[in-house]
Specification:
alpha+beta; Rossmann fold; two-stranded parallel ribbon; 4 helices; 2 strands
């Protein structure tokens, strides 16, 4: 995760994916004065973080990785998060489609297979 360089002495940090770590990430973003977060769409892996940040009052923009591709060449998570942060700072990111909460609720009950 990256914040603008003037917000923290260590503007790029890595957080594990356990619940306590996601809360620590949200706390850090709050301490840095961040109110809007851009996340690359990573399938189901980003859903817990997305939902946690949203529940903590952040505006979360889910962005399509194809639309924010950096210059071809070396790729790393650090470079990607810094690139997203920079695009966000300049107002160049728009959120991708995200269904409403009612649609996102998982199916409860047995799944029936047709044969």
């Amino acid at each position: 995760m990256a914040v603008p360089p003037d917000r923290d002495d260590q503007p790029v940090r890595e957080f594990p994916s356990f619940t306590a770590d996601l809360h620590a990430l949200a706390d850090w973003l709050s301490a840095c004065g961040v109110d809007t977060v851009a996340m690359e769409s990573t399938g189901v892996y980003g859903i817990p973080l997305f939902e946690l940040l949203e529940s903590r009052g952040f505006t979360v923009r889910l962005v399509n990785a194809r639309h924010v591709k950096n210059v071809s060449g070396r790729k790393s998570d650090v470079l990607d998060c810094q690139w997203l942060q920079q695009l966000m700072t300049y107002g160049l990111l728009s959120g991708a489609f995200r269904p409403t909460e009612a649609i996102c609720v998982s199916h409860v009950g047995p799944v029936r297979h047709l044969s």
